[in-house]
Amino acid sequence: MKAFISTLLASLAIAGPAVAAPLPADHQLFVDTMVNDGVNYVVNEPAEACYGEKDLDGAYVVFEGERYLVVCQDNRTTSDVVAWTANDLDTIRHEGFHIIQDCMAGTKNDQVLDTVFTSQAEVIDALGVEQAMDIMSTYAQLYESHRHGDIRMEIEAFYAARDYSATELNSLYTQYCM
């Protein structure tokens, strides 16, 4: 996983902007707010993330002090112009929430995340114990042992992406990141 992340980060530096179908207005506002705050928004690039064997939905990464919101569309093609799926929009909310978590600790571009919600137990209760356990199982396998504490950030991001609208997340972003 560490080698993959290094490759992903290096390829972000050369990734060109992708052209995608228009976003729904609420998601476009959320993306625009992040972009206006210095986040680089990349769709269907880099190839190592979106077309490689990892086949990610998306990622939030910081590379050389620059923040990147990467979205790999479900129905992506080599032309990069496809309609947005519900999962694609969920990915924008999920990865965008990780950027909000980055604003909660340290500086907003150091990829040091902290929780937004005060009670992890309440988040797990709202998300559902079974889904929280599935997330823990998946990320325990993906993350190296020193990152197992980050699983709580994933649980929170899955909850926020599912239960918060793009408009609500935009308000949180404005509150904590601007």
Instruction: Please summarize the sheet with the most strands.
Output: 3 strands, mixed
Distance between the termini: 32 Å
Structural class: mainly alpha
Strand content: 5-15%
Give unreliable regions as ranges.
1-6
Shape category: globular
Instruction: Please trace the helix and strand order, writing H or E for each element.
Output: HHEHEEHHHHH
The portion of residues assigned to helices is 40-55%
Mean pLDDT across every amino acid position: 82
Helix run count: 8
Number of domains: 1
Radius of gyration: 15 Å
Query: Which strand order spans the largest sheet, edge to edge or round the barrel?
Result: 1-3-2
According to DSSP, the number of beta strands is 3
Quick gist of this model?
The protein has 178 residues and is mostly helical. The protein is 52% helix and 9% strand. It has one domain (2-177).
